[in-house]
């Protein structure tokens, strides 16, 4: 069983080389607060209430290979991974982010989903 606690972030893709335009739109026009730091894949992170918006540069790709995804916080990442694997769902790993463990999987339609457990 997976115990979801909240949505942590949503990642959307922007074209390569368009970070300045993204900052103009999301930071200046929408007035979102940028979260400073060196983020995976050189992403730009913004805070929106108690969730984050991650903007990631991506070459044009098919929708099913895209990095677009929601990220859900879970109580126990190990329990969630074990549960999914016991039902034949493949778990993928990516870069480490300080203060959290994370893993990805795809639904039967190819949509990418991230699960996160924060260090406590």
TrEMBL record:
Q: Ranges for the VOC domain? A: 6-118
Q: What is the lineage of its organism?
A: Bacteria, Pseudomonadati, Bacteroidota, Chitinophagia, Chitinophagales
SUPFAM superfamilies in alphabetical order: Glyoxalase/Bleomycin resistance protein/Dihydroxybiphenyl dioxygenase
InterPro entries for the chain: Glyas_Bleomycin-R_OHBP_Dase (IPR029068), Glyas_Fos-R_dOase_dom (IPR004360), VOC_core (IPR037523)
Q: Which domain of life is it from?
A: Bacteria
Specify the signal sequence span: none
**Name of this chain's protein:** VOC family protein
In terms of PROSITE patterns, this protein maps to: VOC
Q: What Gene3D superfamilies does the record point to?
A: 2,3-Dihydroxybiphenyl 1,2-Dioxygenase, domain 1 (3.10.180.10)
Task: Give the source species.
Answer: Chitinophaga pollutisoli
């Amino acid at each position: 069983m997976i115990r979801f606690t909240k949505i942590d972030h949503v990642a959307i893709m922007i074209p390569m080389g368009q970070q300045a335009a993204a900052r103009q739109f999301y930071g200046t026009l929408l007035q979102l607060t940028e979260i400073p730091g060196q983020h995976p894949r050189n992403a730009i992170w913004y805070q929106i209430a108690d969730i984050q918006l991650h903007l990631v540069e991506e070459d044009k790709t098919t929708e099913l290979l895209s990095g677009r995804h929601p990220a859900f916080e879970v109580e126990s990442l190990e329990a969630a991974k074990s549960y999914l694997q016991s039902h034949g769902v493949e778990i993928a790993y990516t870069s480490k982010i300080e203060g959290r463990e994370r893993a990805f999987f795809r639904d039967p339609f190819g949509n990418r989903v991230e699960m996160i457990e924060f260090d406590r």
